[in-house]
Write a structure and sequence with these properties.
The chain has 169 residues and is mainly α. The protein has one domain: Ferritin, CATH 1.20.1260. 62% of the residues lie in helices and 4% in strands. It has five helices and two strands, in the order H-H-H-E-E-H-H. Strands 1-2 form a two-stranded antiparallel sheet. Strand 1 and strand 2 form a beta hairpin. Helix 2 runs antiparallel to helix 4, helix 3 packs antiparallel against helix 5 and helix 4 runs antiparallel to helix 5. It is globular and about 50 Å long. The two termini are 23 Å apart.
Length: 169
């Protein structure tokens, strides 16, 4: 049985979060954009199909587990967006109702090595994005949510880097 790809620590709740346009604008791109949780989910699932097809069920399973962790993040961000005063529409800025998400953002690489490199690049972008959010957020509850998601993203990055190192050998 593979280890969980979620840090063993509870997620903060969105209970008590009030509408806050500043926080909403900061966290919305993490929900559904080219560097979002939605994009990560789709990309990990897409890549897992190819690893399984090439007899690397072990790596396919890890990518699927990371996708499941990203689903938890999407769920938490969607709940936060709703609490902050907007419908969690699959758009970069849900409150504006445009800039809808497109699956064109998924990295459709052709080689397994490139897929891992794309996933690592995605995790690095996510980590930088969440760190920037933390620097801009003033709402302590929203910061706690972003901080907790960030912990999982760092675990995903370390896991993927380990796989790539082993994969190259």
């Amino acid at each position: 049985m593979l280890k969980s790809l979620i840090v063993d620590k509870p997620y903060p709740t969105t209970e008590g979060i009030c509408p806050d346009a500043h926080s909403l604008n900061i966290i919305s791109p993490a929900y559904a954009s080219s560097e979002s949780e939605l994009n990560a989910i789709l990309q990990y699932i897409y890549h897992s199909f190819f690893f399984e097809k090439h007899g690397r069920e072990d790596i396919a399973e890890i990518l699927t587990r990371i996708a499941i962790a990203e689903m938890k993040h999407l769920d938490l961000l969607g709940a936060a967006i709703l609490a902050l005063g907007s419908a969690p529409v699959f758009a970069r800025y849900p409150a504006s109702g445009f800039n809808y998400y497109s699956a064109k953002y998924v990295a459709y690489s052709c080689s397994l090595k490139n897929m891992l490199e794309d996933d690592i690049r995605g995790e690095k972008h996510a980590i930088l994005g969440y760190e920037k959010m933390l620097n801009c957020l003033k709402n302590a509850q929203v910061k706690a949510i972003i901080s907790r998601i960030l912990e999982d993203e760092k675990l995903h990055l370390a896991t993927l880097e380990g796989i790539l190192k082993e994969f190259k050998c």
